[in-house]
Amino acid sequence: MTHWQKYHATWGKLEAPLRPNADIIAKVKELAGPVSGPVLLLGVTPELALAFDHVVAVDKNKAMVDNVWPGDTKDRRAIHADWLDITEPRGFYAAAIGDGSPNALTSLREMRLLFERVVDLLAPGGRFACRLYERPATPFTKDHLLDLAGAPAKLNFHAFKWKLAMHLADQVGASIPVVLIRERFNEYFPNRDKFARDTGWPRELVDMIDVYRGSPAVYVFPNREEVRTVLPKGIADVRFESSGRYDLAECCPMLAFSKN
Ligand SMILES: C[S@@+](CC[C@H](N)C(=O)[O-])C[C@H]1O[C@@H](n2cnc3c(N)ncnc32)[C@H](O)[C@@H]1O
After folding, report:
1. Ligand 1 binding pocket includes 104 (Cβ within 6 Å)
2. Which residue CA neighbors atom 11 of ligand 1 most closely?
């Protein structure tokens, strides 16, 4: 069972960088520009669903649609499907948005396929705007992670977890089975009580990493160079912009482009 099937239960406890805050939503709106027409939402991120007038959300995990989606209305509906299988006619959408959506795919190859699909689905001039988790050019080292864990925390636990995932991606390649994030955490930090005491992160928050146990999900954490290699043909005005100020924001740029 993928962790997305049980993640909704802890959704309320997530914060940026895992969930979008108000500044991130404002930035998506800014980069999407004035939109008249249907907006494709990659995932069921409720804040994004409510930020646009006419939204079609697509998510392949039914539990996320059932539990996180704010509900269908006349102008807002969620479809249970894989992004790579969306079958709407070419040029149907005025914009496409998401939050960390391309990272939820399993490989750079799938990322390329998604971007190609998005370009196909956008009307000419339609914009794509989505936050990305991007590992930095200078890797996060094991020593850096151990240093962070040995002192009262200055960043939230989710940002720390993403640093660990990006550290792993530097070692094994951009695609990371989420079970490895938990395994590496257990290897570096075998004593969770000490880890929680030293950092000040509540033990139950730290234990949220166990949601990855047994999950078949794979994330992809590309660096900027890798993202550029999977950008599709037929786009213009490609931008990588800051998504605000929050823990690990420096590794969470907004990617935006428009269809020619
Ligand atoms: C949008 S992403 C990142 C979460 C985001 N930061 C948020 O706050 O909503 C997560 C969602 O993508 C969905 N997902 C992952 N791969 C998918 C795919 N290939 N097709 C459709 N949905 C997918 C997962 O089910 C999950 O609900």
Report:
1. yes
2. 43
Question: CA end-to-end span of the chain, whole Å?
Answer: 40
Amino acid at 6: K
Tell me the mean pLDDT per 10 residues along the chain, length 260: 74 86 97 96 97 98 94 97 93 98 98 98 98 98 98 97 98 97 98 98 96 96 98 98 98 98
- CATH fold of 4-134+222-259, please? Rossmann fold (3.40.50)
CA distance 68 to 79: 13
| CA atoms within a 13 Å half-sphere pointing along the CA-CB vector of 2 | 16
For the chain, the structural domain boundaries read: 4-134+222-259, 142-220
CB-based contacts of 187: which residues, under 8 Å, 6+ apart? Answer: none
Cβ-based neighbours of 49, under 8 Å, separated by 6 or more: 41, 55, 57, 69, 70, 76
For ligand 1, atom 9, name the residue with the nearest CA.
Answer: 45
